[in-house]
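Tutorial handout. Part one gives the primary structure; part two gives the three-dimensional structure as tokens.
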Amino acid sequence: MEIQGNEWFWVSLPAGDGRLSVGLPQSRIGPRPIHALLASLAGGALLTLLAAWWLARRTMRPLQLLQQAVTSLGRGQTPQRLPETGPREIAALSRRFNEMAKQVEDLLAARTVLLAGVSHDLRTPLARLRLAVEMLVRKPSPELAAQVEGDIEAMDRLIGDVLTLARGLGHEAAERVALPELLADLVRATPGAADRVQIETADITLEVAAGALRRILSNLLENALRYGGGQPVTLHAEIVDGGCRIGVLDRGPGIPPAEMETVFRPFYRLEASRSVTTGGSGLGLAIVRQLAAAQGWQVSLQARTGGGLAGDSIAAGGTGRLRDASS
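Part two.
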């Protein structure tokens, strides 16, 4: 097509409901094809470099932040959370690192609470022991000897609970367990349980970590006996939805709703005096939560209708549903 005496070359492209036509005169194409080609190549190379720089910066910046965060974590510091943006793989990596950093932060906080609680709860019996030893040197008596023995037993229980809590993250192999026998042995081994505990269970066999299950039920049963107000306690087990529900049920005063989750923290006690005689070590429910988590179970507490407290534990991994309840 000629326009004003110049021949034009046109390209027609579809655009929506019509067409878009682009034309260049022959004078812009014919005489300088090499120049046009070089200019096009230079422009394309420049655009490619700019795009590569932008992509590299978008990719490398999150990786640099991740490197700094890992270095900070390796030094024992708490790293800042990474932005979960950028390419999909980088965002997923940042998300997993943030989850890991949160877990490490929780473990460090738990360790601090654990050490503080142990040091606090050991001071009292140690002070009594020091005083009792001084008095025994001056004037021996059976009462002081019994007090020394009681304080040593209290410290031994506390240390045992701490070790159990520290080992709770380990995984125990599953084995076949006859539930009626396990519950009967548990009642026989728990002081004061024989006269107050009733067992209601069918002939149930479970494939579970027997040690973890026994310790969880033992801690819950001890709580039920200690805080149940002297009322009878029932161990109830049944098959529900292909799983097993075990209940340690009491009619004690229960726990305020606001404290249902707080009582699972190490060394937390509703009994404000922190006396081991009246309030335990403060590790019983923390051990229950940690052992259950190590087996893939979930533990929670809720008030019972008619009074008392129920704790629910959901067991996974083919063992069905497990429910534990106590105060």
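Part three, for discussion. The CA atoms of residues 128 and 151 lie 8 Å apart. The two ends are 95 Å apart (CA to CA).
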